[in-house]
Every structure is written in structure tokens, then in C-alpha cells.
Input
Amino acid sequence: MKNTITFFAGLIFGLGLIVSGMTDPANIIGFLDITGLWNPSLAFVMLGGIAIAFFAFRHVERKKLTAFNEPVHLPGTSQLNKELILGSLLFGSGWALAGFCPGPALVVLGTGSKQAGIFVLAMLVGMYGHDIFYKRLFNKTH
Amino acid sequence: MHLTIDWLNFAPGSALIGGLMLGVGTSLLLIFNGKIAGISGIAAYLVNPNNIYGKEAAWRGFFLLGLIGAGLVYSLFAALPPVSISANNNTLIMAGLLVGFGSRMGSGCTSGHGICGLSRLSLRSLVATLSFMLAGFAVTYAMLHGS
Output
């Protein structure tokens, strides 16, 4: 039951990415091109997502339990650090280079796109590189 | 700074509806499974071969299955919208490496920080979101308008 709901959560999330226009890199680059011909649509995507999720977070933070009475796993409130900022700057640079972030890239991969496949493969290598090599090398535990 | 709106491609209605759907997916995962819909974290967990068995892997697998299957389900009802990728293969590889490494180092991406984090009013996620937007604006400027 829980796994079925989780599957549908992923499916609705993926459909939302398609409907919102996030799966078209041209829309992402159009949003990031603020000095050119700017397409503000993506701001409405975020607005819509937050408008719903805000209440869901308020609900679970008050209740501390899921609908199945299990504990909720929320990230701890750790402080700001340089990894957060540097990592996000690197992420944003890659996001702008191809117009893909992880969710939309996986959705487009699911439609059989070879280019999305190349991006996702490189993305997984980058993730593995961070989690396995970088974190061990520098003994980061964040 | 002078802003010029791309009215031809401006689609606030579908963007808002799609965004609401992202909110619904995020909320379902949170309320029924108690988990954050952070796509980079979910994907990265399954990349580690030590992690691919057990309950912690299962929910991530089911979520990703739904996500990756969305195109197929969408195409049963309507034609998929265009996907125009202007990056060549080398750029796609560079971009993928940066997105993968950066999202892990920064503990999240557009979904985990941009939707979940901002929804729970996390200062960390606000700083992360502003950082990746700033980098995105700068790199786009360099690519499209840098000489």
C-alpha cells in the first residue's frame, strides 16, 4: 500500500514536471536568461509546488507522524556552511549548461532520449564521485 | 536592469498547474511515507551498490519508477511536449557531472531545496536556492551574451 502510494507520488511528480514545462531545457534556459528574452514561467512552477507542499510540511511537523503512524524523516536544521553554497553554485552552473536538473532529466530519460541518458549517466558519476571519493578523501560527514 | 518578457513562451497557467502537481507528489511522499522528495538524494542513494537492497532502497525505487514512467503515462493521454536540448554531448557530460557532484555537495537540488526546503521555510534551502539561481543566471549570461 505504502509502496503503491510512493509510486504514484513519483508518477504525479513526473507528470507535474512535464505539464509545467520543466522537462524542456529551452524553458529552463529561457528562465535563467534574465538579460535576454526572459520567460518567467518557472517561477510559477515553484509557486504552485510550494503552495501545496507548505501545508503538507506544516501538517507533518505538527503531527510528527505519517498517515501510517510512522516517524517522519526531516533533515536536521544544520547551519550554513561552505559546502552548501559551493555545491549549489556548481549545481546551478550545470543546470544552466544543459537546462536539466535531476528530476526532469530522469523523466526525459524515461521517454527514451539518448541525450538525457548521457546527462543522467554523467550525473550519477558526479554523485558517486562526491559520495564515495570526495567525502572519504576529505572526511566530510555532512 | 531592463527586463524583456518572452510573452510567446510565457505559460503561467500550465506552469502553475504542473507546479501544483509537484506539490501533490511531494505531499503524498511526505504524509504517507514521511520522506522528502529530493530527487538528487533519492537517485544518489541508489547509485551506491551497498544501498540497493532493503526497505530504504525500496521506497526510492518505487518513487523513481513512477517518475521515470511519467512520460509513458502522459503519452497515453496526449502528445508529449517538445524537448529541445541545445547542449552537445560534451556539454551534457560536463553539465551532468556538475549537477551530480554539486547537488550532493550542496545536499539538494531544485526539488529538495527549491520546493521542499522553501516549503518548510529552511534558511539553508533559501541560501542554496539563491546560490544555484545566481550561478544559473551567470552561466546563462556567459553562454548566451558573453563575447
